[in-house]
Amino acid sequence: MNKYLMLTVILLLLAAAQDLDTLQQDTTLLNKPNFKEKYNSHKKNHDPWFSQDKFMHFSLSAAIPGFTYYFYACQMNKNKNEGKIISISLTALIGIGKEIYDSKTKGHFAWKDIAWDGLGLAVGYFAFVK
After folding, report:
1. Is residue 13 in a domain?
2. N or C end: fewer C-beta atoms under 10 angstroms in the chain?
3. Would you say residue 36 lies in a domain?
4. CA distances from 99 to 42, 102, 106, 112, 123 (A)
């Protein structure tokens, strides 16, 4: 297996992993009366710089350029410069599109998520593409 593909798979698995204790806490808290209303109003105002959500933004934004570049340039044998442009553009569009979607559905555009997406994109580019 190619080292780039293997690193991409590892990053995707790390992003998908969630601590079972956290998951259990979330499900028990959601069953309490009026918790959803309090949680949602608190969540809109509280956006920490470090959280599992930020880690997922970072790791997926680091994995997507590696995966798309590997698929486009290495597997399809296309132009490597075009592969770089496509992998960077696709990752940026996914990150920005996710935040636009969140702003429409949840009423919250998170600039901190965009910052973590950009940092992950830079790390993914230099780790997998360059």
Report:
1. no
2. N
3. no
4. 19, 5, 10, 10, 20
